[in-house]
C-alpha cells in the first residue's frame, strides 16, 4: 500500500516537472520570437522600409514578406526588390546593425536595394551561420572586411556591381564551402589571392570588370568543379596558365579584355564541355592548336578578336555543331575557307572574320550564318547569292563587280606574293558606275540622310529646345526680379536668416574617397591639356591614372565662373541616389577654394556620340555604326537609368541633359548616365515650370 502511494506521488511529481519544463520552453520561444520581431522592426526603421511589407501586428514567420523561419526562429531575410518610404529614399544608408543579434541567420539578400556605405566588420563575427550573402547592386563602397573569411558556412557570396575598392582579401580563401563567388563590376585592384586555389567547391568564379593585375594564379587549375570562370575586363598579364586545362567541367571561359600574352596552351583541348570561349582583346599570338576543339564539341561562342593570332583557323571551328557566334576579327589569320558545305539545319547567328588575310573564293560554309562581316580580307571572285543582304559586309576585299573593294594592284600583289594568279576584273568598266549613275546613287542616299537628319532636328526643336528657351526666359525674368529686390534696403538681420546658396545638406564622408589636390595633379600630369577629354558646361573633363594605376575621369570645376551650383547638385544626387546605370562616382577633392574636383570611374568606350560615328578602318565615309543588338542594349540601359531617376528617387529627378554625349559606355557597352550636374528634383520651383510646359504630372 505504501509502495503504491509512493509510485503515485512520484508520477505526479514527474508530470508536474514535465508541465513546468514545457511551459518554460513555450515561454522562452515566445520571448525569443518577440525579441526577433523587435529586431526586424528596428531594421525596418533604420532602412526606411514600408510598413506594408512588415506590418507591426503580423507574425514575421507567417505574414511578413521575405522572412524565412525554422522552429520559430528567423533564419532568412530577403529584402531584394523592397520599396522604401519617402524618408528612406531620401537618406539610404548601410544601416543594418539590428542584424547583429540574429545569430541563427543563414540567408541575407539585399540585392538591388541602395545601401551606400561600407560592409561592417561584425558581419564576419556575429553572423557565423550565414550560408548566403547577396549584396549585389547595393551601392556598397569601401573595402571588403577581412573578417568575412570567418563565415566558413558561406555557400554563396555575391558582392557584384558595387563600388568596392582596394585588394581582394586573401581571407576569402578560407571559405571552403563556397560554391558561388561573384566580385564583378567593382574597383578591386592588385593581384588575385593565391588562396583562391583552396576553394575546391567553387562552381562559379566571377571577378570581371575590375582593375586586377598580375598573372592568373596557376593554382586555380585545382578547382575541378568549376563551371563558370569570368576574368574579363581586367589587366591580367603573362601567358594563360596551362593548368587551366584541368578544369574539365568548365562551361564558360571568359578571359577577354586583358593583357594576356603568349599562345593558347595545348592543354585547353581537354575542356570538352565548353560552350563559351572568349579570349579576345588581349596580346595573344601564335597559331591555334589544330586539335583545340573536336567535332563533337558543345562550343556555341568562340571569340578570339583583336589579338595577334596567325596561320589558318582549324577547319573544325567552321563546322562545330552548336556554333552560334564566331568572332576572330582583327588578327592575322590567313588561308582559304573550307569548301565543304554545312548540312545541318541549325542556323548560326554571326561570323566576324574582318581585318584578317583570308583569300580565295567565298564558299558554301558561310550558308549557316545569318550575320556576316567578311570585310578587310582578300576574297576574290563573284559574290555568291548566300552572301547578300543588309546583314552582310564584304567591303575592302578583291571581289568582282562590288563597290568599295581594294585596288586591283594591291590584290594582284597579294596573290603574287603567295604564288597565285589574280585576274584584273576590269574594275574601271565593271565595278565603277558611270558618273550619272553614281551621282544618282549618291544623291538618293544624300536625300534619305538629309530627310532623316532634318526630321530629327525638327523634332528636337519642337519638343525640346523650344520649351527650354521658354524656361530660360522665365528664369531670366525671375533673376531680374530678384536683382531688383536685392537693390532695395533689407531689414537688419534678414540676410543672416537666409541659408547660403548651395549650402551643403549631405554627409561628405559617405561620398567615396576624399582625394588630395596633389593626388589629382599627379594623376593628370598637372591637368595637362594632353589629358583633356572635353570642355563641358559644368566643368572640364580630364583623364588620369591614380597611384594604383586605376584609370579615372576627373571633372575640374572653376567656382569663380559660377559653376558651384552644378557640382553641389551632383554631390547631393550621389549622396541620395545609387544605381548601376549611373556613372560610378569614386570621390572628390573640395579643399581648394576656387576649384573643386569630382572623380569618376573611367568608361572604356567613351560616350554614345563617339561610338555611333567611330570611323571604320575599311569604310571611308565614317558612317559605320554600332550593330543593332548593341544599340537596343544601349537604349534599354538608358531607359532603365532614366526610369530610376524618374520613378525610384524621392523626390523624382529629371536629368535635363539627355543626349548621346551624356550616355557613357563601359567596357561591355553597358550604359552609365553622366552629365548629372543638371539634374533637378521634380519638386523644385525650376522643375515645376518645366513640368507645366511639358504637361507632366507632378
Automatic annotation (TrEMBL):
Keywords: Cell membrane, Glycoprotein, Kinase, Leucine-rich repeat, Membrane, Receptor, Repeat, Signal, Transferase, Transmembrane, Transmembrane helix. GO terms for molecular function: ATP binding; protein serine/threonine kinase activity; protein tyrosine kinase activity. It comes from the Eukaryota. One of its GO terms (cellular component) is plasma membrane. Residues 527-698 form the Protein kinase domain. It is found in: Cell membrane. It is a single-pass type I membrane protein. Its main location: membrane. The chain crosses the membrane at residues 447-473. Pfam families: LRR_14 (PF23598), PK_Tyr_Ser-Thr (PF07714). InterPro entries: Kinase-like_dom_sf, Leu-rich_rpt, Leu-rich_rpt_typical-subtyp, LRR_dom_sf, LRR_R13L4/SHOC2-like, Prot_kinase_dom, Ser-Thr/Tyr_kinase_cat_dom, Tyr_kinase_cat_dom. The keyword Heme does not apply. Residues 1-28 form the signal peptide. Residues 482-503 are annotated as: Disordered. Belongs to the RLP family. This is Leucine-rich repeat protein kinase family protein.
Amino acid at each position: 500500500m505504501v509502495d503504491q502511494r509512493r509510485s503515485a506521488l512520484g508520477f505526479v511529481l514527474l508530470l508536474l516537472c514535465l508541465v513546468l519544463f514545457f511551459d518554460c520552453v513555450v515561454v522562452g520561444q515566445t520571448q525569443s520570437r518577440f525579441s526577433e520581431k523587435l529586431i526586424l522592426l528596428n531594421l525596418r526603421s533604420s532602412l526606411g522600409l514600408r510598413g506594408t511589407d512588415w506590418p507591426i501586428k503580423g507574425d514575421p514567420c507567417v505574414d511578413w514578406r521575405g522572412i524565412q523561419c525554422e522552429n520559430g526562429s528567423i533564419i532568412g531575410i530577403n529584402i531584394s526588390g523592397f520599396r522604401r518610404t519617402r524618408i528612406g529614399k531620401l537618406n539610404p544608408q548601410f544601416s543594418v546593425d539590428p542584424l547583429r543579434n540574429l545569430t541563427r541567420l543563414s540567408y541575407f539578400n539585399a540585392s538591388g536595394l541602395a545601401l551606400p556605405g561600407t560592409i561592417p566588420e561584425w558581419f564576419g563575427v556575429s553572423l557565423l551561420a550565414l550560408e548566403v550573402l547577396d549584396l549585389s547592386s547595393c551601392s556598397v563602397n569601401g573595402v571588403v572586411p577581412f573578417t568575412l573569411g570567418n563565415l566558413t558556412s558561406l555557400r554563396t557570396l555575391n558582392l557584384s556591381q558595387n563600388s568596392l575598392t582596394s585588394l581582394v582579401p586573401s581571407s576569402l580563401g578560407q571559405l571552403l564551402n563556397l560554391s558561388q563567388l561573384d566580385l564583378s563590376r567593382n574597383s578591386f585592384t592588385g593581384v588575385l589571392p593565391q588562396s583562391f586555389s583552396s576553394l575546391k567547391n567553387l562552381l562559379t568564379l566571377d571577378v570581371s570588370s575590375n582593375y586586377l593585375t598580375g598573372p592568373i594564379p596557376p593554382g586555380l587549375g585545382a578547382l575541378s568543379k568549376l563551371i563558370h570562370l569570368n576574368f574579363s575586363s581586367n589587366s591580367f598579364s603573362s601567358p594563360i596558365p596551362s593548368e587551366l586545362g584541368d578544369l574539365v567541367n568548365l562551361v564558360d571561359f571568359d578571359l577577354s579584355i586583358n593583357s594576356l600574352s603568349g599562345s593558347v596552351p595545348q592543354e585547353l583541348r581537354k575542356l570538352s564541355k565548353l560552350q563559351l570561349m572568349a579570349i579576345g582583346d588581349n596580346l595573344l599570338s601564335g597559331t591555334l592548336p589544330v586539335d583545340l576543339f573536336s567535332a563533337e564539341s558543345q562550343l556555341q561562342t568562340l571569340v578570339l578578336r583583336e589579338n595577334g593570332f596567325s596561320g589558318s583557323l582549324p577547319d573544325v571551328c567552321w563546322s562545330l555543331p552548336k556554333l552560334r557566334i564566331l568572332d576572330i576579327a582583327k588578327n592575322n589569320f590567313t588561308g582559304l575557307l573550307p569548301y565543304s558545305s554545312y548540312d545541318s539545319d541549325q542556323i548560326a547567328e554571326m561570323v566576324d572574320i574582318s581585318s584578317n588575310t583570308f583569300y580565295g573564293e567565298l564558299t558554301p560554309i558561310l550558308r549557316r550564318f545569318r550575320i556576316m562581316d567578311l570585310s578587310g580580307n582578300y576574297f576574290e571572285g563573284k559574290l555568291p547569292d548566300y552572301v547578300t543582304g543588309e546583314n552582310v559586309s564584304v567591303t575592302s576585299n578583291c571581289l568582282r563587280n562590288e563597290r568599295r573593294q581594294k585596288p586591283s594592284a594591291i590584290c594582284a600583289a597579294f596573290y603574287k606574293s603567295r604564288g597565285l594568279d589574280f585576274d584584273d576584273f576590269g574594275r574601271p568598266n565593271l565595278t565603277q558606275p558611270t558618273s550619272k549613275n553614281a551621282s544618282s546613287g549618291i544623291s538618293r542616299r544624300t536625300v534619305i540622310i538629309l530627310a532623316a537628319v532634318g526630321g530629327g532636328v525638327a523634332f528636337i526643336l519642337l519638343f525640346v529646345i523650344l520649351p527650354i528657351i521658354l524656361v530660360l526666359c522665365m528664369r531670366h525674368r525671375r533673376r531680374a526680379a530678384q536683382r531688383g529686390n536685392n537693390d532695395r534696403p533689407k531689414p537688419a538681420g534678414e540676410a543672416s536668416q537666409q541659408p547660403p546658396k548651395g549650402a551643403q545638406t549631405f554627409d561628405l564622408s559617405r561620398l567615396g574617397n576624399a582625394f588630395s589636390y596633389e593626388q589629382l595633379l599627379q594623376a593628370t600630369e598637372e591637368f595637362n591639356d594632353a589629358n583633356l577629354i572635353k570642355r563641358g558646361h559644368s566643368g572640364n573633363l580630364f583623364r588620369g591614372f591614380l597611384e594604383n594605376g586605376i584609370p579615372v575621369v576627373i571633372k575640374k570645376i572653376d567656382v569663380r565662373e559660377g559653376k558651384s551650383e552644378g557640382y553641389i547638385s551632383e554631390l547631393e544626387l550621389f549622396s541620395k541616389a545609387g544605381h548601376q546605370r549611373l556613372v560610378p562616382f569614386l570621390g572628390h577633392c573640395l579643399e581648394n577654394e576656387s576649384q573643386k574636383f569630382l572623380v569618376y570611374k573611367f568608361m572604356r568606350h567613351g560616350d554614345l556620340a563617339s561610338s555611333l560615328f567611330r570611323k571604320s578602318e575599311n569604310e571611308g565615309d565614317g558612317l559605320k555604326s554600332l550593330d543593332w543588338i548593341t544599340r537596343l542594349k544601349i537604349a534599354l540601359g538608358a531607359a532603365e537609368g532614366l526610369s530610376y531617376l524618374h520613378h525610384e528617387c524621392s523626390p523624382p529627378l529629371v536629368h535635363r541633359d539627355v543626349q548621346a554625349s551624356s550616355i557613357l559606355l563601359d567596357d561591355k557597352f553597358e550604359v552609365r548616365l553622366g552629365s548629372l550636374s543638371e539634374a533637378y528634383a521634380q519638386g523644385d520651383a525650376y522643375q515645376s515650370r518645366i513640368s507645366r510646359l511639358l504637361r507632366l504630372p507632378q
